[in-house]
Design goal:
Strand order of the largest sheet: 2-3-1-4-5
Number of domains: 1
CATH superfamily: P-loop containing nucleotide triphosphate hydrolases
Strand content: 5-15%
CATH architecture: 3-Layer(aba) Sandwich
Radius of gyration: 16 Å
Oligomer: single chain
CATH topology: Rossmann fold
Number of helices: 8
CATH class: Alpha Beta
Helix content: 55-70%
Bound molecules: thymidine-5'-phosphate
Amino acid sequence: MSPQGVFITIEGGEGAGKSTQIARLADRLRAAGHEVLTTREPGGTPGAEAIRALMLDPARHFAPLADTLLVFAARADHVAAVIRPALERGAVVLCDRFTDSTMAYQGYGLGVGRTTIATLETMIDLTPDLTLILDLPEPVARARLARRGSATDRYEQFDAEFAARVAAGFRAIAATAPERCVVVDAASGIEEITDALAALIRARLGLAIA
Ligand code: TMP
């Protein structure tokens, strides 16, 4: 059965404000009458959340390919158990990260082959209808994370050069798939960013949004 709903992914580096924006977009879409499911990767099912805990545990080390396979195992479960059923019943799914994060972090960031990631992507067989990439200058992102002060996960411990490769990766992904991806400046105010994202959802997908 082909999905009837709409699949929107929100991407970006650490501290870009993805979760704040997802909550705000969900409210606005619900106010316009849509069924909305918000979810995240890695995660979204009990099994995938267990993989997330394993993958992001700062006390562990996995080889880059192992991380890639872990995140795709989590994704396979998440898509089968949560995302695809929601799309089949016509929901709007807002997902905090998806395959573009694997390409940016494990591919551009850690050097896993892009064809390896692209091959795994074909097995998942689900492409977002729209991908909103929140782009933040690296020093601003660092300052936000420091203010947040929460325990850092494994990927937050990587250095500024890694973060720069990830950010460049997201921009490169957007450049190769302009019909699907939009890069949004995440340095402005929260309300302003929500307005910009809502306008993109309206214009690109024809969805009603408050
Ligand atoms: P979050 O902090 O935005 O929830 O993301 C969790 C971490 O997982 C973040 O550091 C990026 C990392 N990650 C990957 O490295 N590859 C992936 O494919 C995904 C989905 C996340």
